[in-house]
Amino acid sequence: MTRKLFFAVFPSLENYHSEANEVDESVYPWVGKVVHSPHHDYPVVCTASCIDNNIFITSARCLFSLRPLYTRVFYNGNSFSAKAFVTPSNVTRQSFDDIGFIIVLSNDSYTREWATIDIYNERRTDDTYYWFAEYLRIRGPGDHIAVGWTVHKTQHKIKKPRTQYKLTALEIVLGLDLCAEIFTVNFKIKGFYVPCYFGCDIKEFRANDTKCERAHGAEGGAIVNTKTNMLLGVATWGAYYQKRELPLGFSVANSDNFFKDKKCAINIRNDNERNPPSNYLQSLCPEEDGKR
Predict the structure, then answer these.
(1) Domain 12-289 has CATH 2.40.10.10
(2) What band does 121 get if pLDDT is binned at 50, 70 and 90?
(3) What is the per-residue pLDDT across 47-96, written as a single tens digit (0 to 9) for each?
(4) Which of 22, 38, 118, 219 is the most buried (most CB within 10 A)?
(5) Spans of all domains in the chain
(6) Which residues neighbour 115 within 8 Å (Cβ) at sequence distance 6 or greater?
């Protein structure tokens, strides 16, 4: 039997969790909360991770509907206004593999060193995720966590600007087979051989293990290797089903797009022009390096 191709539209992640643990911000001081308001600490739109002074990464989809003028990142007890965004010029389908950068302005009241997290920076060797299969073979699918700003699943459907999000973390399992088997209904259709994470592995899912009731769907949430304490990537896509949890997809921060856009973000961060003319920031990055 010939397998059918399947196309679905996946919405942005809904910033909810099921059975995750609330953690103090001091445990993950490099995690930022992205808010779309110049004056308030709400509404929360996604999670971001600080990878360098004044530079955060998140899901690119989080940034598409935001304006830098109204965006702030709450981080390490302070808030920082956005200077610019950098998103990939070579977008992937539904931005499933797209990471965005937020470059923030300095805050005179912030006198501490920037708390950052190192990223997994071994470049991809192919476009079909053989390199990710090798990562899993060497490091294993366990020993990873998802970290981000969420509310409990019972509350996330109540859309209120002032919803109080908590920093939460969940132990997760990574895999190439998670989305490939579950979203294709046991391979009846083709696709989804991409990095995904879940509260359980595929065998536990087949057995209806209660571990599979756990979930962490923070847009831009950090996927962290707990052995190396390195940021592997950020949560970028998923599906929502009221009756049960499903695996979620993430982008590993090691694509050509990522490294080009990181260079662009550094150029913008390092520029000190006080009153830049129109399209000035774009000129700091060649077109092939990304777009602002």
Answers:
(1) yes
(2) confident
(3) 999 999 999 999 999 999 999 999 999 999 999 999 999 999 889 988 99
(4) 219
(5) 12-289
(6) 29, 30, 50, 76
